[in-house]
Amino acid sequence: MRNYLSSNRSLLLFLCTYRILNVILTETIFEPDEIWQNIEPINYFLFGHGVLLWDWLTGIRTVVGLIFYIPNFILYHLLLKNRIYYDLFSFYLPRIISGLICVISNYYTIRLGELYHKDRNDMIFRVIISHGIWLYGTRTHTDTLIMNLGVIIFYFFKKYLIQIQSRNKKTENGNMEGSFLIPSALAFLLLSYIFYLRPPSIVLLIPILLEIIIYYFNNSYVDLIKFLSTSILYAITFLSSFIVIDSLFVGKIFSSTIFFIMVNIIYGISELFGTSPFYFTILFFTVLVGIQILEFIFKMNRNIVVSSSAILYLLVYSIVGHKEMRFLLPAIPFVLIVCAENKKIKVGNKNKRATKYKRNITKYLSIKNIIRFILIIQYLVSVFINVTHQRVMPTLRYLKENTSPNDSIFFCVCPYSFPVYSYLTLHKDLKMLTGEQDIFSKMNDIKVLDKYKGQNIIVGEYKKFKENLPKSLEQYTSYDCMVINKTFYNQSRSILRNYKVVEIFRYAYVMAEDDKDIFLYVIKKIK
Question: Are 317 and 200 in contact (CB under 8 A)?
């Protein structure tokens, strides 16, 4: 296997197969943003079906962030009449697209590790066995996209630094005449892209950019000016292009990035969704990388630039009041690189270091094997979680196969748990409870963009519904079918006398959230 993966082409093929398997086994949705940031909005824009959440209605989200998934939904539209394609085009194919981006990211993570003299086999092992990447790498979060693109950008800049260092050495030896090397336009395009989607993400690349700038500063002021000028030109060009796309889409001069900063930093609207102390960043990240958090602490001084990227990113997000585990995903590849073993250096028998190495090899191997064993256990647990925790596809498939487009369906579950409108596109009468926070309490002049006039931000619908059960359910008893969690069903049996349970699905094995339940019931009206 090691010999097979020594080829880059074979490595790419293996990673591709592995991530597609990752997608097939993942029929779960961890957070609403996975669907309602990038998938449901495309369905709304292309087909006029569904609803948009407050962040889209007010302009925090950008259509620029949807470009990877739009082709998938155009194909879906062309094949809309054949319901067999629902599973593929509304759920699996977007994740396959994310999975292929993850393949490229995994590949460049391994290659970047090699640039930092890491053992290739250990890098491959850590990337494959990373439970954080297994859980999130093929999902459709914006954070997943930034994780996958961030390490690719870092690789391009590190490769660029090595090239200019090599060119300088050759020039000093008189073998070639030095000339300024233009940095990669693709690297700056991707850098501008992730900055436009999520401005704080740029901190991932600050250490490597500083290393390039310091190198030029120490060797050539002229080349430094050329590099900075080229970088600024790239940034202005790409960011302007994104603003033009946003403006054309919205119908006025507009930048979602500026609005994102204003809403989340100046007004602090994100705090309405919960706040946590700074140390939660460490707790969340420990869940994502497991025992490697200890390895990282002991080894981070070996690769200062890579370590700085992860540390700086975590520090920035520790300051933010509202914390989510997925916000920390982009730091994972950098931790894997720092933790990976260095390439083994062959030393002659007469060297004293070799004798010392032999004396300690048993201890070294035992620690290494213990860590690997723990990593495998973490990975196996994550596989189970990925397959079982908040599993939505069995319920959706049942609805597709056992209801007609004329049937009305009410989702009486925690808001945004299902890709309701993108999956059941042919159903015209669908209702999902919304869970919008009172954003007007933080920013009373916030408005729905003119483009979305006609859609309202309904504050606290789910909260009011839950507080007034079972009476609040009466207004929905005209629906032909309901998806309702076990707790709500037991509370509302008197209201649901005209319904019968036709199927029960296990939504999860462990559920720590009050608004969710382990079992979901599909109930149909008795006719």
Answer: yes
Rounded to two decimals, the pTM is 0.90
pLDDT at 52: 87
Q: What is the predicted pLDDT for the residue at 175? A: 46
Same domain, 310 and 256: yes
Q: Angle at which helices 93-115 and 70-78 pack, to 10 degrees?
A: 150
Answer for the pair 43, 422: CB distance below 8 angstroms, yes or no. Answer: yes
Strand extents, DSSP E, 32-178: none
End residue of a domain, out of 344, 361, 386: 386
Confidence check: pLDDT of 239 > 50: yes
Q: Which of 38-42, 71-75, 121-125 has the highest mean pLDDT?
A: 121-125
Whether 111 maps to a domain, the answer reads yes
What are the tokens at 353?
Answer: 């270091």
Strand, helix or coil for residue 272: helix
Domain-located, residue 26: yes
Q: Which long-range CB contacts under 8 A does 311-315 form with residues at least 24 apart? A: 312/203, 312/204, 312/206, 312/207, 313/200, 313/201, 313/203, 313/204, 314/281, 314/282, 314/285
Alpha-carbon span 153 to 135, nearest angstrom: 22
pLDDT higher at 510 or 401 = 401
Give residue 345's pLDDT band: very low, low, confident or very high (50, 70, 90): low
| Distance of alpha carbon 117 from the chain centroid | 28
How many other CB atoms sit within 10 Å of the CB of residue 301?
9
Backbone φ and ψ for 451, nearest 5 degrees, come out as -60, -30
Residues 6+ apart with CB under 8 A from 138: 19, 22, 23, 26, 95, 96, 98, 99, 102, 144
Domain with 412, as residue range(s), is 393-525
Using DSSP, state whether 132 is helix, strand or coil: helix
